[in-house]
Design brief:
- The structure holds two protein chains of two kinds.
- By secondary structure, chain A is mainly α.
- Chain A starts with a helix and ends in a 12-residue tail after the last helix.
- In chain A, the strands form five sheets. In chain A, strands 4-11-10 form a three-stranded antiparallel beta sheet, with no helix packed on it. In chain A, strands 1-3 form a two-stranded antiparallel ribbon.
- Helix content of chain A is about 35%, strand content about 10%.
- In chain A, strand 10 and strand 11 form a beta hairpin.
- Chain A contains 19 helices and eleven strands.
- Chain B is built from 13 helices and 52 strands.
- In chain B, a hairpin with a 2-residue loop joins strand 46 and strand 47.
- Chain B is about 10% helix and about 45% strand.
- The relative contact order of chain B is 0.11.
- Among the domains of chain B are: about 80 residues, Immunoglobulin-like, CATH 2.60.40.1120; about 40 residues, no CATH class.
- Chain B is globular.
- In chain B, the strands form twelve sheets. Chain B has a 22-stranded antiparallel β-barrel. In chain B, strands 10-15-16-13-14 form a five-stranded mixed beta sheet.
- The chains are: A mainly alpha, B mainly beta.
- The interface between A and B is large, with 118 and 111 residues.
Chain lengths: ~600, ~1050
């Protein structure tokens, strides 16, 4: 009796588990998934894969309010220009992380994620994509060897570009030459600064030797793809950085003991300047032999139009100078918002030019406006500079055409139709009338606004398609002049000539040949500030020159409209910013250092 | 053959006759002993009438009266009355669930008055467990059960809220009180994983959400906590299981109940904002703190205008909270249900509705729409049991609801877009809000106006849910006695739709034209901004649908021989859920389970139980989808031992059960990511942009790496407990100790270098977490004459610890390691005052790469390396989910009155006040009261020594002053007067003339008072910019009528 019950119970239980699971009830997705082999099984797929290499290509203008697929979204919407003396972000909006950099509160957790200046991990993602391309493109059956070579060239130069972008920020890096999975990756610590440099240069040289990479994109729809011109340009730029004081030195910016070679070369070698000069000349020679030219329409010099075409326009709009330009999607009206003062075009004053950047520029006759006359020695607003009645633009109207195309100021014309005059001033009365930009409050951090990148979109942001001028021929001229001047004992005519080309095409006078080596050095540096205004050079130029002082004191202009319709201009110290010497190189992300594979953090962080 | 058969029939008949004879003889003897009178065939039949009532004199409906030894019987009607034709001197057995059965001898009396006593031992009390029911006394697992009546005490629309504080082992946080979107986050025995910790919830045996059920439909909610009770759910059981059982019909006359109530809701707590003048003062101070060179924004003349309100259009002092919200919002609820049945068919039919309004004022009235939150839900249920044959029961359950809710557009978007964060975005000085029917914006504050965020439209949601269960139970006594087979089919259908209606709006900026004459005020004109039409456009509509098929079949066997009770269960089930919008939409989510259970007890004294699940989840590779999940439990009812009874005496210790369980259960979930073992394909995704006319070129990107080794989380759970009753069951105490070791936790990898740059699969089995705790439940239940009273309490404590989580241990700064800490541990700095003097600054170490300045927040150099930086963080405060939760309910009933109250609390957890609540002025936003007690250069040193808020800033460039630290980490513990109920029941006697059986009137209150330490917002709210709709305090009046 008892046994029977137990048997029944156990039989019931046993039957539960004796049953084999009906295998096919729990379904499995189709195994025929689209793998790497599928991608490289057809040219049409491989082409699509190639496009992904450019997803995170360098961008200069940032997207404000970033949507997920926009690469280059850094500093929580502010642009790199706002962490230099070129510009600042609206103080009343704390979301812009440029404030943190300017006040000296930077930490590695956010500085090298998309909240800070650089998204460290994103560089490696692009590099991985490039290696996948390099490792698999030979498998594509329906593609010519020439085209495969071209794609390889593009992938390689993009690896070099990403490495350069990291190298200039972090110094020596882990050198990775193939793809890994999470199961087979080696623990790779940092190579030295020199090894990393050599790696970048060797990649550039391999690409230069590639016969199937074109010098220039031939089809209009290919604009934005890497060409051999980028390889030449990147090589010259890398060599310029290698020759500059930050790296070309016996001792680094901060003693790092046994790890000094991660952050400097460990010796000074003037031949690095020579190499940079020669590379720049090679780049110029190669580019000019292959259809590139400095934009220099003699009829458009004084209007600054040449400059605008060279910096913001695409080849079909006459830009013969851009060696590598990148773009966002079709309509980026929200980027325009970030570059405009509040009140115009829906502007958000994410980036507004400082008075410092106004002072980069001289009058067209080479003289300078003595702005300091309106400021007291302690930085407070001093004796006002008065304009004639109804001439708010008085002090600005003769400045460099490049200034006129880059910065808007009180009294300048924004657009012709409708006839809008920019008005930045505190009125004689508190009355605010329609059509005015109104007092400064909550409008704009500085009494200036950007015009660069917004040209031709004054009436409407619709259709705004900014081009990011990543490398252009003018830079090769500037590199030549700078490297040559550093290498030679005295400025050479060739170096002067190079600068003259840049100035002449923008309606500015040629360089005074009487300048000595050190005067010319300063001149070139100032010319870079002008020519590359808000093109993402300034932050890294001041680091490589080891001259961070310009970052520290930021000036603004107090403008009052008087009852007699004259305007008072007073320069004043607006802000003290911060710099620490350990900022010469970026920190690696905190979490990365603690992954335990031997990544050495840069000193001071 | 025939002959033999005949013989056997005869034989059987003979056996039957013999048995019958024995029975008759036995009962005869028994009755003879009792009454000294054996009913004889020739006795006179007469009609008797009777009324059956309880000790309080309330009549009992549906009590059964059976003539002993026969199958003649009846049940009482709704007045507790019955009539029966019986022979004199027969014995009636009167019984009713929950009462001690009584034998009554029929004498000469034709009118019987029978009183039944409540059965306090309630040995028959059953508890719903996985795939079945068990007697409470023989349960060896850790299961708590909450009765439907208790849930009805809470006047809330969301059933998850009604659970809070009612039982041990359930911890909760309710982050939002938004009508229709106010689920409470429930965790059983705390958190045992770094991954997904959500418990499995079932309604009538099928995986379903129960939040939107009508509490009037609920019979009970069981919470399964240990391995023994959850092993049958195996691969899904590790986070505990909540089983909701709906009401079933009971044999008897139809009882119609109506339950209705009306309530007013108000917020438990609003943050307090600064008024315009105070705001302007601190704003100016913040600007100067940031940049001493700046000119303060507000001039003294402007400040005066904010203060005296002389120019409110241009210098407003706007209280956004009052402008946007009402203080009270109504809610009403109705339910009507019918319960009854014949012997063969029993039914429960219920129809309920709830209407809940939100606190928003409506700014869309002109368009005939509303931006307010509203929630309307209609619940229906029909549960029918039919006995087709004496051994076949069919059970048909149909339930569902149709719900519609409305909300503002911002509320449903990103947290940062929510209206509640916009409340922080708008300064009191920003704009007057509305003026002459126009939405006003001023340049001063970035042209912001929260009303714009409210009135830019609304979203309406429809959510329909239909659940069908069809079950059949067949007794297989003809095979062997005690064998039952059952099977169930269930079909669920869920449909939801959201419609997003954008409302274009025109805002106006007032402009005061220059005065035409001195000492006059200029004319005001309104400049419209934009050229939008003031209309509600066509909606953007989104749908979501799902359907689920479930089928199970089971064999069950229960038998008794001697004092041995044995039970066995085998069940198979499978489920598929089709859900559009899923990844791999072509493949429904599937589960397949084999379940087994053996229970054995001897004399209900020695208890043994074995549960086992063999479950398969699609989340794992095909060849390793199925796992075994066994659990063993045992119990000993000590008070059933004669020696124990002798030793202690049943007067003191009336019941003592010691039980324990050990087993393994699993968890297959990781944020609903599917097929993590599969290498993901190269997806269309991302793009390159090329061309002289910029054009997007769609591209392929590499998918995630597969993890072919992925498997379920394994939870080894142990539970040791004692259930005790003292003083004739007046006092009961249950104590559980539990521990859980969860390994193979599915978590993300954190140590792969960036340069590998591969997209890793979300889930790897990397973590180990330990979770331990104690639960205590106690009750005192007694009466003094008519005054019945009780006190019930529960207390739960659960603490977890991360043993392993793919973290590279930081040896330089070991205090930064999360390993060894609790899941959700807060890390931050240790606040050490503010820098008050130049001396302190001179002595200060390097602060985040800088020298500090006066007023900066000072943190401790925790790692003593002479530099204060991010390496000086450590674990501060508690975890972010409560480790302690408790509830105490006290109640009494006296004559018609009943009263109960629930005090509930959570402890040992912390919350960081952050974002807009800790950083005023964000994006032209306002400031909270907490900013007034700031460190300020204008303060005296004494005042600054008392400061509790850092130096103010507008840019937040001195970000380190606002880091998470002990300064802004608050103890989130609270005690709440969760629920109070006062009722009065009119006795039947006074009502029967109008055909009403009973009426109960009641007043209830929910969340009436809270004692907490946070004080800024409700302690369960999230004090950040993602702060949600506040929790609701509810004042409710209602009645329940039975016909």
């Amino acid at each position: 009796m008892k046994i029977k019950h137990i048997i029944i119970s156990i039989a019931i239980l046993a039957s539960a588990f004796g049953m084999v699971s009906c295998d096919d009830f729990l379904q499995v997705p189709d195994k025929s998934i689209f793998t790497i082999d599928s991608v490289f099984a057809k040219k049409i797929n491989a082409d699509k894969y190639m496009y992904s290499l450019y997803q995170d290509a360098p961008k200069i203008l940032q997207n404000w309010g970033g949507s997920g697929d926009i690469a280059g979204y850094i500093l929580a919407g502010a642009s790199r220009t706002s962490i230099t003396d070129e510009a600042g972000s609206l103080a009343l909006q704390p979301a812009y992380n440029s404030h943190l950099v300017n006040a000296g509160n930077v930490n590695s957790t956010w500085f090298t994620t998309n909240q800070g200046e650089d998204d460290y991990a994103r560089h490696w993602k692009t590099i991985r994509k490039c290696y996948i391309m390099l490792e698999n493109i030979d498998n594509v059956p329906d593609m010519t060897t020439e085209l495969k070579d071209r794609y390889k060239g593009e992938a390689k130069i993009l690896v070099a570009l990403e490495y350069f972008e990291m190298w200039k920020r972090y110094g020596g890096l882990p050198i990775i030459t193939k793809t890994y999975t999470d199961a087979d990756y080696p623990k790779t610590s940092r190579s030295t600064l020199k090894e990393t440099y050599d790696f970048i240069i060797s990649l550039c040289d391999e690409v230069i030797a590639n016969p199937n990479l074109p010098a220039k994109t031939t089809l209009p729809l290919e604009f934005g793809r890497a060409t051999k011109a980028l390889a030449y340009g990147l090589k010259a730029r890398t060599m310029l950085y290698a020759a500059s004081p930050l790296f070309n030195s016996v001792t680094p910016y901060i003693d790092f003991g046994a790890n000094n070679d991660l952050i400097c070369f460990g010796n000074y070698d003037s031949n690095r300047w020579k190499a940079a000069r020669d590379a720049a000349l090679e780049a110029i020679t190669y580019c000019e032999a292959n259809g590139y030219a400095i934009v220099n329409d003699a009829t458009k010099r004084t209007t600054g139009r040449n400059y605008i075409v060279a910096t913001c326009k695409r080849p079909n709009e006459g830009n013969t100078e851009v060696m590598f330009g990148t773009t966002w999607a079709t309509d980026q009206a929200n980027i325009a918002v970030a570059w405009m003062a509040r009140g115009r075009m829906g502007g958000s004053a994410v980036n507004t030019p400082t008075h410092n950047s106004v002072e980069f520029f001289t009058n067209v006759d080479g003289t300078s406006v003595n702005w300091n006359a309106s400021m007291n020695a302690d930085g407070t607003a001093g004796t006002a500079m008065l304009t004639p009645a109804n001439q708010p633009e008085f002090y600005y109207k003769n400045l460099d055409p490049r200034f006129q195309q880059s910065i808007v100021y009180n009294g300048c014309k924004w657009s012709l139709t409708p006839d809008v005059i920019i008005q930045f001033y505190d009125g004689a009365t508190t009355a605010v009338t329609d059509g005015l930009e109104g007092p400064k409050k909550a409008k704009s951090e500085f009494m200036y606004g950007f015009r660069k990148y917004l040209n031709d979109f004054e009436k409407s942001r619709a259709g705004f398609q900014p081009m990011n001028p990543v490398v252009r021929l003018a830079e090769m001229y500037m590199i030549y002049a700078e490297a040559s001047n550093e290498f030679e004992s005295a400025p050479t005519a060739a170096a002067f000539d190079k600068i003259d080309v840049i100035r002449t095409r923008s309606g500015m006078p040629v360089v005074n040949r009487a300048l000595d080596k050190s005067q010319f050095k300063e001149y070139i540096r100032a010319e870079r500030a002008r020519e590359f205004f808000a093109e993402d050079h300034r932050y890294f130029d001041l680091r490589r020159w080891k001259t961070p002082q310009p970052f520290l004191k930021i000036y603004n202009m107090k403008i009052v409209k008087n009852a007699d319709n004259t305007y008072s201009y007073q320069k004043y110290l607006h802000q003290n910013r911060y710099w620490a010497d350990f900022w010469y190189l970026h920190p690696f992300p905190y979490a990365e250092v603690y992954k335990g594979y031997g990544l050495i953090q840069n000193p001071g962080w | 053959m025939y002959k033999r058969d005949k013989t056997s029939v005869l034989k059987v008949n003979f056996q039957k006759a013999f048995l019958l004879f024995c029975l008759v003889a036995f009962f005869g003897l028994a009755s003879a002993q009792e009454a000294n009178n054996v009913g004889s065939a020739g006795a006179k039949v007469k009609k008797i009438m009777g009324v059956i009532s309880d000790e309080k004199g309330e009549s009992i409906i549906g009590a059964s009266i059976i003539v002993k030894g026969t199958n003649i019987g009846t049940i009482t009607d709704m007045n507790g009355k019955f009539t029966l034709n019986v022979s004199e001197k027969s014995t009636l057995t009167v019984s009713y669930i929950g009462y001690v059965s009584k034998s009554v001898l029929v004498g000469a009396e034709s009118n019987l008055k029978i009183t039944l006593n409540e059965d306090s031992k309630n040995l028959e009390e059953v508890v719903v467990v996985g795939y079945g029911q068990q007697k409470k006394v023989t349960i060896t697992g850790a299961v708590s059960q909450i009765k439907g009546a208790e849930l009805l005490k809470s006047p809330v629309a969301n059933l998850t809220q009604a659970l809070v504080g009612r039982t041990a082992g359930v911890m909760s946080v309710q982050g939002s009180g938004q009508p229709g979107a106010d689920d409470t986050q429930l965790r059983i025995r705390g958190i045992g994983t770094t991954g997904t910790a959500t418990p499995l919830t079932l309604v009538d045996g099928i995986e379903r959400s129960f939040a939107q059920l009508d509490p009037n439909e609920i019979e009970s909610i069981s919470v399964l906590k240990d391995a023994s009770s959850t092993a049958v759910y195996g691969i899904r059981g590790a986070n505990g299981v909540i089983i909701v059982t709906t009401k079933k019909g009971a044999e008897g006359k139809a009882v119609v109940s109506y339950n209705g109530s009306y309530a007013l809701q108000s917020a438990t707590k609003w943050p307090t904002f600064l008024k315009a003048y105070d705001f302007a003062t601190v704003y100016n101070e913040a600007l100067l703190n940031d940049n001493p060179l700046t000119n303060a924004t507000f001039t003294p003349a402007e400040m005066q205008k904010f203060k005296d309100g002389s120019d409110p259009l241009f210098y407003p002092d706007t209280d956004w909270k009052s402008l946007l919200f009402n203080d009270y919002a109504p809610q009403n609820q109705h339910n009507i249900n019918i319960n009854g049945g014949t012997k063969n068919t029993r039914y429960f039919v219920s129809l309920g509705t709830i209407h809940q309004e939100g606190l928003f004022k409506n700014f869309l009235e002109a368009s005939g729409a509303t931006n307010n939150n509203t929630y309307d839900r209609y619940n229906f249920r029909s549960n029918i049991d039919i006995d087709f044959t004496p051994s076949t029961t069919v059970n048909f359950q149909l339930g569902g609801y149709s719900a519609k809710r409305n909300s503002t557009r911002g509320q449903e978007g990103l947290a940062s877009d929510g209206v509640f964060s916009k409340l922080f975005d708008s300064a009191p000085t920003a704009t007057i809000g509305m003026y002459e029917g126009k939405i006003i914006t001023l340049d001063r504050s970035g042209n912001r106006n929260v009303i714009s965020n409210l009135t830019d439209g609304f979203v309406d949601y429809t959510n329909n849910s239909l659940n069908i269960n069809l079950g059949i139970t067949q007794k297989l006594d003809f095979i062997t006695k005690g064998l039952t087979a059952r099977a169930k089919i269930a079909y669920d259908n869920q449909y939801s739709r959201s419609r997003d209606f954008a409302h274009n709006q025109v805002t106006y900026t007032p402009i005061r034209l220059a005065a035409v004459a001195p000492d006059t005020i200029g004319q005001i004109v309104f400049r419209p901004n934009g050229e939008k039409a003031d209309i509600i456009g066509d909606p953007t509509t989104n749908f979501s649908r799902s359907r689920q098929f479930y089928i199970d079949a089971a064999l069950e066997y229960n038998t008794t021989f001697g004092k041995n009770n044995i039970g066995a269960l085998f069940l198979y089930n499978q489920k598929k859920r089709y859900y559009h919008g899923l990844s791999y939409p072509e493949i429904p989510v599937g589960y397949q389970d084999f379940v087994g259970r053996i229970t054995y007890n001897y004399d209900s004294r020695y208890l043994l139980e074995f549960n086992m699940g063999r479950n398969g989840s699609e989340n794992f590779p095909k060849e390793s989808r199925f796992g075994w999940f066994p659990a063993l439990s045992a119990g000993w009812v000590a008070t059933s031992e004669p020696f124990v009874q002798k030793l202690i005496g049943t007067d003191v210790l009336s019941y003592l059960k010691i039980r324990g369980s050990y087993g393994q259960v699993g968890n297959d979930q990781m944020n609903a990511t599917r097929f993590m073992y599969l290498e993901q394909e190269y997806n269309a995704g991302g793009y390159g942009v090329f061309g002289e006319t910029a054009t997007k070129y769609a591209s392929y990107i590499e998918g995630k790496l597969g993890n072919p080794n992925i498997t379920w989380e394994k939870a080894n759970k142990m539970d040791i407990a004692a259930d005790m009753k003292f003083f004739k069951d007046k006092l009961s105490i249950n104590v559980d100790y539990f521990s859980e070791d969860r390994s193979n936790i599915i978590t993300t990898r954190k140590t792969v270098p960036s340069y590998v740059a591969i997209s890793l699969q979300d889930g790897y089995n990397l973590g180990i977490v330990q979770n331990k705790g104690v639960e205590i439940e106690g009750g005192w239940n007694s009466k003094v004459r008519d005054f019945r009273y009780w006190i019930n309490g529960n207390f739960s404590f659960a603490r977890n610890k991360i043993i392993e989580m793919d973290e590279t241990l930081n040896t330089d700064n070991p205090q930064l390691n999360r390993t060894g800490k609790s899941v959700g541990q807060i890390f931050g700095f240790v606040f050490d005052g503010f820098f008050n003097t130049a001396d302190e600054i001179a002595a200060a170490p390097n602060y985040f790469g800088k020298k500090p300045v006066l007023g900066d927040t000072k943190y401790m150099d925790v790692n003593k390396d002479g530099v204060v930086d991010q390496n000086d963080q450590q674990a501060i405060g508690g975890p972010t989910f409560p480790e302690i939760s408790y509830g105490v309910s006290v109640g009494f009933s006296y004559k018609g009155f009943d009263f109960s109250t629930l005090v509930q609390g959570s402890g040992n957890y912390s919350v960081v006040v952050t974002d807009r609540l800790y950083r005023p002025f964000a994006a032209f936003g306002g400031a909270l009261e907490n900013t007034l007690n700031r460190w300020s250069p204008a303060n005296t040193p004494e005042q600054n020594a008392q400061a509790t808020f850092p130096k103010l800033t507008v840019t937040y460039a001195s970000l380190q002053n606002y880091y998470t630290s002990t300064l802004n980490t608050y103890d989130a513990s609270y005690i709440r007067l969760k629920n109070v109920e006062l009722g009065y029941t009119f006795s039947r006697k006074n009502l029967s003339f109008i055909g009403i059986n009973s009426i109960r009137l009641f007043l209830t209150g929910q969340n009436l008072y809270t004692w907490d330490k946070l004080k800024i917002i409700d302690p369960e709210g999230n004090p950040s910019q993602s702060m949600k709709y506040p929790q609701m305090r509810v004042y409710n009046i209602g009645c329940k009528v039975q016909f």
